[in-house]
Amino acid sequence: MQEGAGHLGARGAVGLGVTSVPAGDFSVTAACDGAEQATLTVSQQGAGTPDLTASFRCGVPFMQRVHLVPGSVNARVTLPEGSTASADATAAVRIAGR
Questions:
Q1: Which of 16, 50, 77, 98, by CA, is between 20 and 30 Å from 22?
Q2: Predicted local confidence at residue 12, as pLDDT
Q3: What is the pTM of this model?
Q4: 8 A C-beta contact, residue 15 and residue 25
Q5: 50 or 80: whose pLDDT is higher?
Q6: Extended strands (E) in the chain
Q7: What is the residue-wise DSSP string for 77-94?
Q8: Which residues, 6+ apart, have CB-to-CB distance to 19 below 8 Å?
Q9: Strands 13-21, 52-57: parallel, antiparallel or unpaired by DSSP?
Q10: Mean pLDDT across 77-92
């Protein structure tokens, strides 16, 4: 399991990069506080797999199952363009195996 967390309002994004994952199904969980809505993006560069992009409401954890191929993976929680967040807005993202 890998996790990342931080201030969403300060940078507008909280990310997690994992350099090596095996092939398989994983759960990606994202959460935020201090904003209305956020966007979760999960990608694997050059892996031939489609990126996952999903919007979710802050204050309620969001979980999505994804199939990953061997290699690196990036997961980011960002604010939608034009949205605002409190100065102390936070977000977290977690990638966990089966």
A1: 77
A2: 75
A3: 0.86
A4: no
A5: 80
A6: 2-7, 13-21, 24-35, 37-43, 52-57, 62-68, 71-78, 85-97
A7: EEPPTT--EEEEEEEEEE
A8: 72
A9: unpaired
A10: 85
Amino acid at 53: T
Going by pLDDT thresholds of 50, 70 and 90, the confidence category of residue 51 is: confident
Angstrom distance (rounded) from CA 84 to CA 58: 12
Buried b (16+ CB within 10 A) or exposed e, 60-74: eebeeebebeebebb
